[in-house]
Amino acid sequence: MTGTLVLAGTPIGDVRDAPPRLAEELAGADVVAAEDTRRLRRLTQALGVTPRGRVVSYFEGNESARTPELVEELVGGARVLLVTDAGMPSVSDPGYRLVAAAVERDVRVTAVPGPSAVLTALALSGLPVDRFCFEGFLPRKAGERLTRLREVAGERRTLVYFESPHRVDDTLAAMAEVFGGDRRAAVCRELTKTYEEVRRGGLGELAAWAAEGVRGEITVVVEGAPEQGPEELGAEELVRRVRVREEAGERRKEAIAAVAAEVGVPKREVFDAVVAAKNSERQGT
Predict the structure, then answer these.
(1) Separation between Cα atoms, residue 256 and residue 271, nearest integer Å
(2) What are the Tetrapyrrole methylase domain coordinates in residue numbering (predicted)?
(3) What is the C-alpha to C-alpha distance for residues 197 and 216, in angstroms, rounded to an integer?
(4) How confident is the model at residue 232 (pLDDT cuts 50, 70, 90)?
(5) Stretch 144-169: mean pLDDT, rounded?
């Protein structure tokens, strides 16, 4: 019989948030794969647990090489516990490759549910929580970051991002540029830790605040775009949406059809707007 891969959630700050089953799994697993073995050691000491199994590192730098080794352990019947530094494995953390490889070999995959920075920030933000999407980390390069933000400028669901404290000021400024400075947002810092802080306001206001310097682990929650009727979208906005899709790799014909369906206007109207913009650009040159 094959073994079992267990994805275990770990505290995002306060160690007292550790689920009771985490200690049991840490003590009983045949192999514990940890993103940082030093942080794992501090966690097990805090929980009063001594892993009986082998402890190995499993992080971004060795994920590709170590995955086949762990899969062979699983196929051989081992119970492998995967833990990352904080939160659930594979959510902007190592784990996806191992889960996919285990599923391909018909290995059972289960989880020990635990704290999540995504859901905690969403709940504390004060923004709508009925529909949301998680966008992870934005690209580091300014141009790529703007392109990614433009792709979701019309997204009506609440958006959740992770960000580095060293880049959060630039990110908030880019969000204010693309989404508008009045779009509501919340910056959640050091969740469940001693200096936890949730800063709420418009993106422009938050960008100015972050420019003074922000420390700690950051989760940003942004309100979705307001609903707009077809009559509220001008030709310039229609052209912008087509260009965003073209930059993402869609052919113009498909991009025009998609934008027309998205905003509820005839394809001809979008096509005419694109052609007019093209002609205007030629005349300008």
Answers:
(1) 6
(2) 4-207
(3) 10
(4) low
(5) 93
